[in-house]
């Protein structure tokens, strides 16, 4: 969870993530973790800036050969 997603917007000061969206997100992550657990896997969940959290995970694991990510598409006005 990137804390920057839970701040207020620059223009109007509105929350970027409201309580209903946050609840949906938390329930979805919980469901995904439970589904993976039933299949013998797991889900790593961390809070922090992704660029820091991913680096820390790579350092902890030590045997990472690839990292795959996606970038959110920003709307161009």
UniProtKB/TrEMBL annotation:
Residues 1-77 form the Photolyase/cryptochrome alpha/beta domain. InterPro entries: Crypto/Photolyase_N_sf, Cryptochrome/DNA_photolyase_1, DNA_photolyase_N, Rossmann-like_a/b/a_fold. One of its GO terms (molecular function) is damaged DNA binding. PROSITE patterns: PHR_CRY_ALPHA_BETA (PS51645). Pfam families: DNA_photolyase. Keywords: Chromophore. Gene3D superfamilies: HUPs (3.40.50.620). Signal peptide: none annotated. The keyword Kinase does not apply. One of its GO terms (biological process) is photoreactive repair. This is CRYD protein. It comes from Catharus fuscescens (Veery). The lineage of its organism: Eukaryota, Metazoa, Chordata, Craniata, Vertebrata. The gene is Crydash_0.
